[in-house]
Protein: Oidioi.mRNA.OKI2018_I69.PAR.g10986.t1.cds
Amino acid sequence: MVFCLFISNLLLATASLHLTERRIQITWDRSPRISENLISIAAGPGIFFNNQGCVFENSRFIKYIAALRPGYLRFGGTRADQMTFINASNPEEICDLRSLHKIQKPFLPVTLYREDIEKLINFSRNTSKRMLFGLNLNSRSKDGSWNSKNVELLLDFFKEQNFFPDFELGNEPNSYLHHFNYTMTPEQQANDFEVLKLILARKGFHSSKLIGPSTTGRGPTALNYFSKFLETKPPVEFAAYHHYTLNGRNATVKDFISPSSFYAYEDEAKLWTETSKENDKKPFISEGALAFGGGAKNISDRFVSSFLWADKLAMSALTGIHSFCRETAFGGAYALLNEDLLPTPSYWISFYFRKFIHGRISSLQTFDDNQQFYRIYNVCTNKNKVTKLIINPSKATVLRIEGKFESYQLIPKGRHLLSKYILINGQRPSIHRTRRETGSGSLLLQHYSVSFIRTNISCK
Ligand SMILES: *[C@@H]1O[C@H](CO)[C@@H](O)[C@H](O)[C@H]1NC(C)=O
Ligand SMILES: *[C@@H]1O[C@H](CO)[C@@H](O)[C@H](O)[C@H]1NC(C)=O
Ligand SMILES: *[C@@H]1O[C@H](CO)[C@@H](O)[C@H](O)[C@H]1NC(C)=O
Ligand SMILES: *[C@@H]1O[C@H](CO)[C@@H](O)[C@H](O)[C@H]1NC(C)=O
Ligand SMILES: *[C@@H]1O[C@H](CO)[C@@H](O)[C@H](O)[C@H]1NC(C)=O
Ligand SMILES: *[C@@H]1O[C@H](CO)[C@@H](O)[C@H](O)[C@H]1NC(C)=O
Ligand SMILES: *[C@@H]1O[C@H](CO)[C@@H](O)[C@H](O)[C@H]1NC(C)=O
Structure:
């Protein structure tokens, strides 16, 4: 199908109208179907280490996370490789959600007790999230072989609870030298996955999928580990890696709206998807956000992060990524819910993405001419109508859109990039109701906006 998109720049200062016209070809038959589990969340044992396990019983937290269902709850991270399960009650059960953002010394061992695991199981059931549980690969015997003893106890416990999650084995194995002072090889990890597979079969975990290797980094050595692992034909259903675009310790507001940050993920997602597919696996991001290191304080948690996050979700869909587990649901400047368990702008982007973007995703148009930068993703929804996601981290623009449409524009409250609050069609967002605006023919795309445009154009 050919359909026309007339793009015009509205030069607000001079009020003159400069029009450019482009025709794009959209082919739906080869477009990837968007995974229902695309929007997923991540959390780690650090929550229990910080005495915040009660967050999983908090009704507000449950309500907001459940609104993003289905998807995965990935429970893992560095401490999963330092975790021991004890089938007993926690002797000093305390909880303080406000003790947030303690310095999380990354490499200390952590113990999880029976109630901790029960809380996770209950939370996963309450929110209709499938759990992806990160098992400890770092427990090694003297001869270097994987010591599965504590994992087996944990599996027995899951079984007693009639709970059969999916599993990772090892977190960021390509950084074991840095974390644990020895090298994990892709062959060793793949071999240990084979051992795990036998254990799961023996214990009756027939519905549990394995997901790995969960590498860190974006460069050639990380990609090399990832592809070497996949070349051994390991028993994993999905090829998992971690992705952060920026470094939270030095990222600036400019980095969050710079075209190069958008192009970086585009190039990398395509490359890693290609590597996954060459090995007959679907790609899966088992942990990621925009900036690592706890996020970029006062940036990741503000409106300015909305553009890259919407783009990251859409680009993940376009490259066929099955799930993107957002680090984190709670805790750190990159959390979806803040320390009062209220939604951040990234939460609302996730929520409206889940609401409006489903079906198949086709082309991406990028408009980038130094003056103006925006991206349009075209989606064919389950109702066979075209919906557009328009990410505009620059000036206002008029777009011509064929026929009638409903528009949902998200902008920062106060029109300030560092706003903590987001508005949708001028109102505060709510998981229960959303104000609809309609138009036809042309759309005024606002300055600093992320917009969902539901057209009545049939996909054909
Ligand atoms: C979560 O599920 C448990 C049962 O597993 C139930 O007792 C509890 O009320 C639920 N909590 C919420 C907030 O839905
Ligand atoms: C989990 O939910 C069950 C009810 O389904 C309840 O009996 C149990 O106490 C809960 N566990 C925790 C740790 O909250
Ligand atoms: C955990 O301990 C409880 C109570 O002591 C026991 O009933 C249960 O079988 C134990 N589970 C495992 C997996 O050892
Ligand atoms: C790391 O391992 C090497 C040899 O395996 C050892 O000599 C060295 O002391 C270790 N370093 C630390 C910081 O433990
Ligand atoms: C931030 O630090 C990383 C090293 O982790 C470096 O590669 C990058 O260039 C730095 N970025 C900026 C904007 O300074
Ligand atoms: C973030 O903003 C708060 C106030 O809004 C300020 O107190 C804090 O120092 C800022 N932190 C950083 C790292 O900029
Ligand atoms: C879309 O809306 C326009 C304007 O009302 C109308 O002319 C057109 O027939 C509609 N198209 C479809 C496919 O419903």
Observations:
- The longest strand covers residues 397-412.
- The radius of gyration is 22 Å.
- The mean pLDDT is 92.
